[in-house]
What does this fold into?
Amino acid sequence: MAYSESTVVIGGLAHIPIVIGVFWLVQQNILNRQGKTTSSFTANTNSTSSIPTQKSAPKTTTTSKPSHQNVPVNTYKPKDPFIGKVTENYSLLKEGAIGRVNHITFDLSSGNPLLQYVEGQSIGIIPAGEDAKGKPHKIRLYSIASTRHGDNYKGKTVSLCVRQLQYEKDGQTIDGVCSTYLCNISPGEKVKITGPVGKEMLLPDDEDSNVIMLATGTGIAPMRAYLRRMFDQKERQKNGWEFKGKAWLFMGAPKTANLLYDEDFEAYKKQYPDNFRYTKAISREQNNSKGGRMYIQDRVLEHSDELFELIENPKTHIYLCGLKGMEPGIDEAMTAAAQAKGLNWSELRPQLKKAGRWHVETY
Ligand code: FAD
Ligand code: A2P
It folds into this structure.
């Protein structure tokens, strides 16, 4: 049968809707399949991802959920730092503890603009004096340990949790420059502050999200801020954010006397037993199953089933903060824990990271 040119063109055009239809069906199929394979480890799409700043966050912000994009960053830069005044500086350790760890608070009220921050950010400190070459000291970063409302709930202070660095070299004890400066500083003294910086460790906005926290030593600083935001009565009234999820803190310290903010956490546990779990790894007082020092990764392994049940929930976020050296140990523990559930940690971790649910700040 012979066809004219116009018949061929018309016939071809008539197939276009069919081709489009088939293409659409194939695309839908692919999208559905992608949805299925990633569903248990994807970001919580219900989250509006908001962190209110002090200015835009009056007493009740339950319905106002600004996005992470509104998080203040670098309000004060190294060339023109804010000059804060120390209001408090006290030891967080009990008798018999190892080393020196202090809680230090700075007054920010004279700032114009006000140095505002949110839970999970850090600030920079420029120590007074000069280095060996006669140049000003470089900035050191410290995780903020207070909520945006500050320890006194007035919104114009920031607190840090600082361990004095001390190490032996050639038979001499060397003191870290900035950590020693901060631990020795007295109320009334002025300090150069920069920042705030960092968006890696921000809390999710959802009141029913779950938050797993893995901290060693001063890595507790951002977690202290999270837990105050979640469970401190005055904070809850002030922030209009009523945490309803599960928060689980794994805390590593060398001795019981070195546990930081322990009484506060015990009080939260008593008051919110369904929402807060607190698991300690006291390395120099407890042994792991192999007879070695008890580290938080050993505790992670002990609780792997429950942890992975939580992690499978897309509303669960994991935060890791403190010693850089703990990262391989945590990875190893998560690998074993995942394996026990038939999961592959080296595949899961990037998925969690991509979904904004795996947060790491180690130093
Ligand atoms: P420095 O005088 O700068 O000395 C440090 C240097 O000493 C090292 O670079 C290394 O060269 C050398 N050194 C260190 N240990 C040894 C050793 N054992 N043997 C030989 N040489 C050694 N710290 C806190 O206390 N609390 C916090 O909340 C906190 N948060 C941080 C958040 C972030 C994002 C980062 C990046 C760091 C954080 N730190 C925190 C660490 C902090 O920034 C400083 O690094 C720390 O206080 C040491 O500074 P320093 O000036 O006292 O020491
Ligand atoms: P240890 O020092 O007994 O080996 P701090 O900063 O107050 O010293 O606390 C840090 C805690 O983290 C200590 O209990 C320390 O144990 C522990 N720690 C040290 N190395 C690791 C590691 N690689 N993984 C996990 N925890 C660690």
Summary: The pocket of flavin-adenine dinucleotide (ligand 1) is lined by residues 122, 140-143, 161-163, 165, 167, 169, 176-180, 218, 221, 361, 363 (CB under 6 Å). Residues 5-38 form the longest helix (34 residues). Residues 82-197 form a domain with the Elongation Factor Tu (Ef-tu); domain 3 fold (CATH 2.40.30.10). Confidence is low (pLDDT under 50) at residues 25-66.
